[in-house]
Amino acid sequence: MRLGIVGAGVIAARYAERIAEVDGLDLVAVTDVVPERARTLAEQYGATAHASLEDLFADVDTVVNLTIPAAHAEVTRAALQAGRHVHTEKPVAVGAEDAHALAALAHERGVRLSCAPATLLGEAQQTAWKLIRDGGIGDVKVVYAEANWGLIESWHPEPESLYASGPLVDVGIYPLTIVTAMFGPVRRVTAYATTVQPVRTRKDGRTFELTVPDFWVAALEHESGVLTRLTATFWVRPGRQRGLEFHGEDAALWMPTWAESNSRLQRTTNGEDYDDVPLLREPYGGIDWAAALLDLAAAIEEDRPHRMGAEHAAHVVDVLYGAHASRRSGGAVEISSTFDPPAPLDWAA
In 3-state terms, what secondary structure has residue 210? Predict the structure, then answer.
């Protein structure tokens, strides 16, 4: 698969490094609104830096959209209209209407739209999902999902774009994508949000003021009957308050991080004594940024659905913005969209 990265910012280096490590993926092109960033990344990985999207499209069959969230829909739309497959960073679009329109456009053009986050494909996540499907903790009734990411400005050189999206959209989307894959669509969301620290200081000493809340709690009611409590903040530091807890009728399963493929898994029947759950295979050490790309390439070759589908991603956007609507109205918001659930990976089926 000949890949072209659009957006050579912080996350692009992680994608490029992982792409270079695996077979079947070839990074051949890069473009960015700051040409020097594109040249630097391209030179490091033997790719070509292009001055425009159109030039990049001519060189690739798949576009990796790593632009800022506000630009996701525009870049993805252009790539799909050019007949290119796309893998886009999250969210697929900042508005629900755009998200569903992009899913429809991909279908219309006969190309694939793969959407981050893809941490569902990790070894720990797939092991947890299989244990739950096999009844290893009994029927799951409640899930606690924690996305507490601390002060983004403590490490990110340009944190404003992440704060413009807010923690629910930027990091809450990770566990939300996992729980909707496992337990199906959300039918009702009720949310609360506030701002804990409105003025932030960048690493270079400049200050900026938040325009969206930095603390969210949402109650999600799945069509299956499972209840998820989702917390997302850009203030509470990562620690024990970051991960997924699956509470079944017979036991609970704790995954300390929903991001890394090599997360621990622990099962408890009394909340005090925890037993380690072995992973189904040797895990990748961290976040595998190539996992969705490898699945996309295999899905095209095998003529099957890719696992990180656009309809699923559009439903997640519906839930995110249902939470925003609930926060404004003070009541529950109904979610009507749906999607076909992804299949487990073959080795975890």
Answer: coil
